[in-house]
Amino acid sequence: MTEIISDIGEFGLIDRIHTLIREEGIETPGVTIGIGDDAAAIKHREGYELLVTCDCLVEGRHYLSDLLDPQALGRRAMTVNISDIGAMGGLPLYALVSLGLKADTPIADVESMYRGFLMELNPFKASIIGGNVTKTESVNFIDITLVGEAEQGKLMLRSSAEVGDAILVTGYPGQAVAGLQLLQRSDRPQDHKDHPLVQAYNTPKHRAREGHAVALSGHAKAMIDTSDGLLADLGHICEESGVGAELIKEQLPLSEALRQEAGQREFDPYDVVMSDSDDYELIFTCSPENVPDIRSVIASVSDVLISEIGRITQAAEKIQLILPDGNKRLVTPSGWDHFKT
Amino acid sequence: MTEIISDIGEFGLIDRIHTLIREEGIETPGVTIGIGDDAAAIKHREGYELLVTCDCLVEGRHYLSDLLDPQALGRRAMTVNISDIGAMGGLPLYALVSLGLKADTPIADVESMYRGFLMELNPFKASIIGGNVTKTESVNFIDITLVGEAEQGKLMLRSSAEVGDAILVTGYPGQAVAGLQLLQRSDRPQDHKDHPLVQAYNTPKHRAREGHAVALSGHAKAMIDTSDGLLADLGHICEESGVGAELIKEQLPLSEALRQEAGQREFDPYDVVMSDSDDYELIFTCSPENVPDIRSVIASVSDVLISEIGRITQAAEKIQLILPDGNKRLVTPSGWDHFKT
Q1: What is the pLDDT of residues B60-117, one digit of tens each?
Q2: Domain A5-151 in CATH: superfamily?
Q3: Nearest to B339 among A13, A131, A337 (CB)
Q4: Domain residue ranges of chain B, discontinuous segments joined by +
Q5: pLDDT tens for residues B108-162?
Q6: Residues on chain A touching B340 (C-beta within 8 angstroms)
Q7: Fewer CB atoms inside 10 Å of the end CB: C or N, chain B?
Q8: CATH topology (fold) of B166-330
Q9: Long-range contacts of range B58-65, CB-CB < 8 Å, 24 or more positions apart?
């Protein structure tokens, strides 16, 4: 019979989690007190600023448990947070994991989820230093607080884009939402597990190493991750920096998988690239003359595609899409607005 | 008509929260980047260790929304976390608030909840530096991560109690659970709002100032808060320190309100004092000769009652209760085990 949480209780579950973290996790320097006391304690390095972020995944809202196995879910939940640290120009160090779990959740699923967390943390020698588990009646949720560090004075903000800046983006935004739609349309979603769009949805990549390298180079001005979608997050940069932007439609990155899917199902793939999505790419701006330097800085840590997709303009222009015929279309950011129906 | 979250959407709600925090919160020194970017950034003081803790309240599990108004709920959620920082010997600095909210939640309730957070943070010049809001279908939850600091080398752990230590406790553990039971029994819970036991449940006190003062004095050995209940948390100290304990029943602190309630309803009030509860008092141990010093250290910051309730013994003794007739009773810690039924 499958062992579930109510078989071993909260303290039993916590013991199992601690054992897993001890055996499969990594000890991060700087942790004075790890898991097991009222709070964790850390000593911090001179010359660095601490970064703190938290993000929450709720079952049924941010993931469908029958479409995402627990390990992939764990990776996703941690990736979302690592992405936020990376978008500030930092690297992750310490995680606190707060879980809301139904009493009939299999223990093995919780352990797989933690393995997913560690798969994302271990490469950075980052570790889980605290958290808690709470019983919920109806849906599971995962709330992670991630602490990272960035070199002092090297933080990448949303508010420092300037008119004339080039706008760059990593990877292929929009793939995750296309993958989710593919799964939701299918009668047999499991058959599409290896489809590149489904993989983009199931195990999205963060760009923390790229973000950190760009920050250290000093060549970029503003940076954000695409957690709300390309347009919505470019919108955040525009709002915080008091600028506008124009995007060149033909320069938006389009993966072969998305191009094919759009061809088969007859939709404009560029709408998907700009839409709300669950990808965690980076958007950043820099002086046009610094584009080659930034490309080579990123190439030294990663082979991710870098696309130059437009320019920062005056605020009054808002966000315009330049079409292949030279006409412009005003594109209003929407983003993930979870409460409006 | 009552304005609810779905009227203004996620971004509208976030704007309202930011405005409230800006107008009614306090700026904590050390915050380089506050709310509004991908992550918050903080610079840390030399000579201090950072403490990090997180704790989650789930509607229906940790609170009943018809028995607790939103501001009291906000105070409770923050108090729970401040208590954890205090139990390590630290003081709170920065909070991240992650909310799961139903779309029909009134905006005014969310704002009241934030006022509750700030009522607890402002006296410490601590501030909210980040967080997120997520839509949930069925229940609201509040997950708070709190960052604090403690003087280097002055952390108070669970694991450093020694045989022969005196065991002390602040305040009156057990009052909160007695207050909750009183509310649950009543047909008209609102009529009991001012009852001292109900107040103990609705707005529990943390003892962070007391914990910090005790830590600085260097006189105490082990410390923990009573978030799982007096016996369960003493059990954590015993387990982590490899010791046992004996408690003297007549020395357990009993408030007049609990004594009266027990008299009317004919139960043994000491069972309630030792039981699972929602109080956030401190248990700590010290050499018997340091008890007077600790009493005067605490008296310099607070007039809370300090009771000496027993002694640390050899591990083999487990936890024994010494009855008025001199007999001993083995008392097994139970604590909040949310998943076992």
Answers
A1: 777 777 788 999 999 999 999 999 999 999 999 999 999 999 999 999 999 999 999 9
A2: PurM-like, N-terminal domain (3.30.1330.10)
A3: A13
A4: 5-151, 166-330
A5: 999 999 999 999 999 999 999 999 898 888 888 999 999 999 999 999 999 999 9
A6: 6, 9-10
A7: N
A8: Phosphoribosyl-aminoimidazole Synthetase; Chain A, domain 2 (3.90.650)
A9: B58/A100, B58/A134, B58/A135, B58/A136, B58/B139, B58/B140, B58/B141, B59/B139, B59/B140, B59/B141, B60/A137, B60/B139, B61/A134, B61/A135, B61/A136, B61/A137, B61/B338, B62/A134, B62/B278, B64/B183, B65/B140
